[in-house]
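Colleagues,

Please find the record for the two-part complex below.
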Amino acid sequence: MLRSELVAKLQAEFSHLRPELVEQMATVALDQVAEALEQGRRVELRGFGAFSVRRREARQGRNPRTGATVSVAAKRVPFFKPGKELRDRVNGGDA
Amino acid sequence: MAREGEKKAGAVTRMDLAEAIVAQTGVPRADATRFTDALLQRISDALAAGETVKLARFGNFQARSKRERVGRNPKTGQEAPITPRRVVTFRPSQLLRQRVESPPSGTPRRERRD
């Protein structure tokens, strides 16, 4: 399912609202998650899962082409942990 | 294992997403709340049906199948088979990775010392 298909389903479900408005609502929701992560905050969506930011320590890496050693700086990466309800549904349960 | 990122001002919840929708679009709160639930429900439905969900500029959710493998009870050390299962993985988009990796200037960082 693509973002456009998701939005189309929501537009059908919220047909009392203008389609452009529904699209905008989806954008705001996803942007809000991204913005929270950008600020290092956790996002806990009950039943669905939690987004958090994990820190990767600095390490020595290698350029795979030249074999040269390069230092990779510490960085932060987004992480998603599915919630119990989602895990159970995906794994064949019908919660 | 990687540590959790710094925590500030509590976690963002479904209610916060709904509030942001109200603030930025002006729809009634009841619609924003229902919409937030519906958005997550639709994504869950697709994943439960085994579909991959690709949200441009945000990331991809995938329902992946894992084969049976041998695990170990960490307390007793006893081997036990882990049954085949489907799990959800999230791969953040390049854009989201970049936003999180290097926050915009002005964002307070725990590492700062001045």
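The radius of gyration of chain B is 19 Å.

Comments are welcome before we finalize the supplementary table.
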